[in-house]
Amino acid sequence: MTRRRKKPEELRSHRWYGVPDLRAFGHRSRTAQMGFDRRDYAGKPVIAIVNTWSDINPCHTHFRQRAEEVKRGVWQAGGFPVELPAQSLSEPIQKPTTMMYRNFLAMEAEELLRSHPIDGAVLMGGCDKTTPALIMGALSMGLPAIFVPAGPMLRGNWRGETLGSGSDIWKYWDQLRAGAIDREALNEIEDGIARSPGHCMTMGTASTMTSVAETLGLTLAGAASIPAADSNHARMAANSGRRIVDMVWEDLKPADILTQASFENAIAVTAALGGSTNAVVHIVAMAGRAGVEITLERFDEIAASVPTLANIRPSGAYLMEDFYYAGGLRGLLSRLAGTLHLGCLTVAGTTLAEAVNGAEVYDDDVIRPLDNPVYPAGGLAVLRGNLCPDGAVIKPTAADPKFLDHTGPAVVFDDYNDMAARIDDDALDVDASSVLVLRNAGPEGGPGMPEWGMLPIPKKLLKAGVKDMVRISDARMSGTSYGTCVLHVAPESFIGGPLALVRDGDPIRLDVAACRLELLVEDAELARRKAQWEAPKPRFERGYGRLFTQHVTQADRGCDFDFLEAGPPTPDPEIH
Ligand code: FES
């Protein structure tokens, strides 16, 4: 479909630069102060490069250079690039969790675009929450936008072993606790596991969410799988800069691209990737900004029929670098073509079918064919029951199958500090059949729903060879984690959800095939406990923490702020 092209005087930036009034005098004279001539910007789309680079985000160290490559593309296509720094959300460094700041970055991106003379945006993200945050902000602002994913880092290496972000940390940390390796070995692993720019190279939240962004049609075809250190990545950045200029002239906005069908594609691809459970929260939140309702049940329905094809850790054996060489996301999409809505639009102005056209798979062990999947179907399951009336999620592909139908006595930890203090105590009354419960780790209780959901196996059981147990919490877990971890229990315990009522020794039943999670305690007893329950004090009395805890929604609604969910558009600033 050919779209009508805008005229220069229809550009949003025309109100800042193109009118003969006093305020515009100020805008032009101050742009001249920065060394730009009128010919640099007059009548051209002003393109914001929203850059989440910082000195303390290791996943985005190449973004300074990539921003220059984006600018090159914007200049070549006849646009005027302006780089706008936004907070970096450094997953491995920030406390208590970057999830507490996802909505903050979403607001920042939205308001950066609104308050400046911007016609279109290049969104540079990749480290976990940056991808959904930037997309949420751009959606709410409603300007043409294209996403430039950071790309995964190269494979880690230690004494000839391939190391994967997160997944191998948990593995070798447990080996250290069990006495199988020493400190010196762990120090070498520390130095070998992250050896290039780029985001985590397992199928963690970053790889899942950048693949979701591409599936949604918000990147150029093939962009999400390119390793950050590959020169193809630099060329993709420049191409994205070229493309956004045309998107402005065509007035092609995220709302034109994102539909119920494109979000359903994203869910199917998450399942086929063996993707992070965090995608559930982020997809619900992004869909909410697009005015599309995605229920937890829809995840379950779609995932139930989609096999896991990507043989990537933690569900599989390989890493993102292998995935790229095997054909990348386009290869995987080509294998899933029968289940996808291929008519969905992309930033290229063409359909997903055209993005996938010609894609091949070069290694059938890395991207499995439909008749030889890593996991047959149901790689993501949504649970209901008296312990999680508003839902919980589990990733069966990362669990020991024997625990997918299990009943065991609860061992309850009131919060993370309680868990950290007692988990390795030899006196802890726990055995391999116990169900570990962590509460007060949800959106308000954490706060920010930290990635504490993969509770450690108690040391005495580790030494006895136990590698997995059933664990239940209102927390999230890193996409690089594994184990039989029931996550995102809603409503959370901090606001009086049923997790708050569990006591040591209570039997808990998990039945993934039936999608059930039940606390096997009489209703009358639960009602009695509920009547005795006292709400904890609010976590924050002031500041952003107060805003966050007063307005964050529960996991089943995506943990967006209630006042940022879809609603009437925010007015654009007037001329003056
Ligand atoms: Fe940035 Fe994992 S730490 S993506």
How is this structure best described in words?
The protein is α/β, with parallel strands linked by helices. The chain folds into three domains: 272 residues, Rossmann fold (3-Layer(aba) Sandwich), CATH 3.40.50.2300; 37 residues, no CATH class; 152 residues, 3-Layer(bba) Sandwich (Glucose Oxidase, domain 1), CATH 3.50.30.80. It contains 21 helices and 14 strands. The strands form four sheets. Strands 12-11-10-9-13-14 form a six-stranded mixed sheet. A four-stranded parallel sheet has the order 2-1-3-4, with helices on both faces. It starts with 13 loop residues before the first helix and ends in a 25-residue tail after the last helix. The structure holds FE2/S2 (inorganic) cluster (FES).
Largest sheet: 6 strands, mixed
* Radius of gyration using CA atoms only: 24 Å
Which structural class best describes the helix and strand composition?
Answer: alpha/beta
Low-confidence stretches: none
Any idea what the shape is? globular
Distance between the termini: 37 Å
Q: What's the CATH class of the largest domain, please? A: Alpha Beta
What are the distinct ligands in this entry?
A: FE2/S2 (inorganic) cluster
Number of helices, counting only DSSP H or I runs of 4 residues or more: 21
CATH homologous superfamily (4th level) name of the largest domain: Response regulator
What is the spatial order of strands in the main beta sheet?
12-11-10-9-13-14
Mean pLDDT: 96
CATH topology type of the largest domain: Rossmann fold
List the helices and strands and how they pair.
Layout (H helix, E strand, L loop, with lengths): L13 H4 L4 H12 L4 H4 L4 E6 L11 H14 L3 E6 L13 H17 L4 E6 L4 H12 L3 E5 L6 E3 L2 E3 L3 H11 L5 H10 L12 H11 L15 H20 L3 H4 L2 H14 L4 H12 L6 H8 L16 H6 L2 H8 L16 H5 L24 E3 L8 E3 L10 E9 L2 H7 L12 E4 L20 H5 L6 E4 L10 E3 L20 E5 L4 E4 L3 H10 L10 H9 L25
Parallel strand pairs: 1-2, 1-3, 3-4, 9-10, 10-11, 11-12
Antiparallel strand pairs: 5-6, 7-8, 9-13, 13-14
The structure holds FE2/S2 (inorganic) cluster (FES).
The site of FE2/S2 (inorganic) cluster has 10 residues, from loops.
